[in-house]
Amino acid sequence: MEAVKEKLIGAINLMSLEDATSLWEYVINSHTFRTSLKSVKEVEPTDEELRILDAYENGDDAYQPYISHENLKKELGL
Fold first, then answer.
1. Residues with Cβ < 8 Å from 23, sequence gap 6 or more?
2. How many domains does the chain fold into?
């Protein structure tokens, strides 16, 4: 995965739900592919995805952000 995509994922992991929702609305409303995003259907997570979410929520180090909020902001120039 490209570094910029990894940075975005890291930033999103650190966001509040409100900020993430706001970012999602921005993406949907600001880009030419918005019609295709609006047609995306939600699906139930697979068993593997549920295990990963559970590991993340229970603090498994393998699924935690690798960078602090402050360091991420520095890397993004914010």
1. 12, 15
2. 1
**Is 70 exceeded by the pLDDT of residue 13?**
yes
* pTM score: 0.41
- Residue type for position 77: G
Q: What's phi and psi for 71, nearest 5 deg?
A: -65, -35
Q: Which domain holds residue 62?
A: 3-76
The span from the first CA to the last CA of the chain, in angstroms, equals: 22
Q: Are 67 and 10 in contact (CB under 8 A)?
A: yes
What region does 15 belong to: left with phi over 0, alpha with psi -120 to 50, or beta?
beta
Q: How many CB atoms lie within 10 A of CB 13?
A: 16
pLDDT in tens, 17-59: 999 999 988 887 777 665 676 777 889 999 999 999 999 999 9
